[in-house]
Queue: 2 jobs
Job 1
Amino acid sequence: MGSNITEMLRLRAQIVSEALSRTVFSEKSDIPALLRLQEAMAHGALGGGKRLRPFLVLETAGLFGVVESQALPAATAIEMIHCYSLIHDDLPAMDDADTRRGQPSVHKAYDEAIAILAGDGLLTDAFTVLTAPGNYSADVAAALVHELSRGAGSAGMVGGQMMDLYPGTLTEDEIAGIQKRKTGALIEAAAVMGGIIGRASEDELSRLRAYAASVGEAFQVVDDILDVTQSAEALGKPAGADDEAGKATYVSLLGLDGARDRVGLLTKKAEEALAPFGERAVVLRDLAHMLADRSH
Amino acid sequence: MGSNITEMLRLRAQIVSEALSRTVFSEKSDIPALLRLQEAMAHGALGGGKRLRPFLVLETAGLFGVVESQALPAATAIEMIHCYSLIHDDLPAMDDADTRRGQPSVHKAYDEAIAILAGDGLLTDAFTVLTAPGNYSADVAAALVHELSRGAGSAGMVGGQMMDLYPGTLTEDEIAGIQKRKTGALIEAAAVMGGIIGRASEDELSRLRAYAASVGEAFQVVDDILDVTQSAEALGKPAGADDEAGKATYVSLLGLDGARDRVGLLTKKAEEALAPFGERAVVLRDLAHMLADRSH
């Protein structure tokens, strides 16, 4: 690979974590209940993670010469949305997960009511970050809010979670439809948000969306593959959990080899979408390969 | 009163309900799970209610000559936020309410997971409405998103709900602090959002905020009074529920007479804030009086 992608991800994850912490505690409260809420939000937002969505915002903005500090608020906002979704997904009424990234999930570390509110708080505050004076000009801010809320809302991520909980016929189309909303929509939003900050053309935004759509689907297929091939320790969550829950996965439908083929095809499509950006897109290309080849 | 405020509220509530229905079903899904999500969102958004916050948006925008149709998307968005908060507040882990406005709450009519997602969907989609192309110019849209997300987020409504669930010392200051966040912040946002659409000056926005702060606190004091003086039937929820739950209320702290005095004082303050708007503000003045004198 042309870039040290793993190291770049690690460094940027650290920068994003610091920005998340600053944001959650930006008005650190001296009221005990509010401080507890902020701590629960931090617990849900700061437990590690690849910070893939923020990385995409930073890198796609970088294609257009946008410096990291300028893309960072949008990167922070989308990660707040991602983290809220994990907090709510872990709730007993949803996936009922006691742990997340090897730590107690928020409703286990605090309680259910606090987990619901911490999620609501992260979700709502993300839009405050995007529109805070000084972060973005009004036209960019409004476009970012629209892109992020579309990706995260009932037609996007929330709708995907609903389809995942109440699946219909488990055809390949339906599995792809769930994935496209549940994880794909927010990954697309991330890539497009970077383009919006960089004032990309409509054609460039379409290419970024196509890149992210392929990367997002490949990411999910790899997740499904790892769920059946990796140990719980390597994953930081119970292995085979999807299968046990009777959930639709790419592996249950395509088989392991078929799923691996699909990853290869999607990675090629991701590269093709980036073609006009040439050498500037080396990191995004490497990212697609790294995500396809990852083992956890 | 100089206006038929009750009739105006009723008419506008109907217009807002229709706008909410159009918004929730704007992309009516043919995927069963997504249609079910939209129906659950509609159940939570369309069960009646005074539509006080949308009314404030429409009326404060009207002070500046903004026509109803132009303020309607913002009015719809803030009601989506209000309704999401009711859906989540009713959850078993929160207030555990089986009914809302005489109907089954969303988690009773559907299930807990759907109620969580319906709330998340309404909350997120509200920001899509504010930034949808054609609704507002970018500077107005960005300001609306900022005002609404601040009022609804961890420093506003979500924080107030957290303080309500985990109260500290039940002094008058603390009760006021809970109210100011839990219900006051969104009522303030409503009044200010109308001003933003009307391109009000900073001084005018401050006056609208002061008006709404007084009306919002008076509204809560009256709620507390009604909770101990009215029957369950008249309220549409169990009477004395606050007292039973050991919650801090204005009545438990100030007594009935003290609470009534406070309503009078706050209504006077609300009128004073409107003084510079003269006759244009007659409906807002009548609203303050009507809310103070209401019996349900």
Note: Chain A has a mean pLDDT of 93.
Job 2
Amino acid sequence: MSTLNTQQFIAPIALEKAYRLLNHGPTTLISAQCGEDRDVMAAAWVSVLDFNPSKVTVVIDKISHTRTLIEKSGFFAVQIPTAALLKLTVNVGSVSMKDDPNKLTKLKVPLFYQNDFNIPLVQGCAGWMICKLIKEPHNQQTYDLFIGEVVAAWSDTRVFKDGHWHFENADNSLRTIHHVAGGHFYLIGEPADVDFDS
Amino acid sequence: MSTLNTQQFIAPIALEKAYRLLNHGPTTLISAQCGEDRDVMAAAWVSVLDFNPSKVTVVIDKISHTRTLIEKSGFFAVQIPTAALLKLTVNVGSVSMKDDPNKLTKLKVPLFYQNDFNIPLVQGCAGWMICKLIKEPHNQQTYDLFIGEVVAAWSDTRVFKDGHWHFENADNSLRTIHHVAGGHFYLIGEPADVDFDS
């Protein structure tokens, strides 16, 4: 698939700018790994919690195998899928590893790793954040709410560079996807700017 | 302003569908009131937490007067501003009531009320949710994170109806706005659908 990233387009993001991957509210892919056991799921209920250092919240149902891996390993990745990954996002969000242990292979989820981190990342995303779980057992148990601090982040520089999105100058297949319900999404659209002092 | 709602376009949303106002990640306006004291602020760090009943999370800085009003009254509104309210959203997010007690009057924020609720709502939004604060002092103090349960919700039926957004059939001025940083936003764009079983 021509829109999948190759290493040449991936560059690190300064940690205090990483929250901007999420600020405009895209649907995400969450992944985690413990030993050889790994999983990827979709999550729309994700938000920035802080920016310096960047922290995120994500809601993860108790039935998710990804959740088990996060609780075991203490780490997870938050990734920003693009229009090119729309079907993959719906599919990894529809099938549970608990029902089909071969989910990732069957769905042909294209994974890669960054140095120093044993967390599978999905090729073709516009951005990737690796988060260290900040344990809050009451939130996790009562609300399925997980908090993570971003410890590393990268973007596809064709669409996110110098701390900003550049959707209007990139291929439409690199636009972020924003979930409504079922298989229904919207792509991010056109820029709109206000003079901050006006 | 022609795009401001008039009462004829506002209809209640079933509470279990209210989360869909937020699911695609729009930037929001938060308002609260205690007695005659009221405030409106902008917030991008807002997420769905649950859907039945609909619950939300929102991050609100300690310097915000809106936060004081939420803590006093136990209620707040989460509203979905449209492109027509872009400048207003930036302005209410830039000026604090603590610096200018006449903020709402000076900025000419057009407010209205729904029966039974003493919370100011901003005209021209695409959706409005009134939330009852679920007190979680540790989250509020440590993370500036507030949890609310939606107790009433309405939409502008020109753009959200029957539990779904209809941006593609509405005027562009009714598109939701998605914040990146400073005065830089993106509008929500075009629909993208996947056959859920494909």
Note: The CA atoms of residues 131 and 151 of chain A lie 6 Å apart.
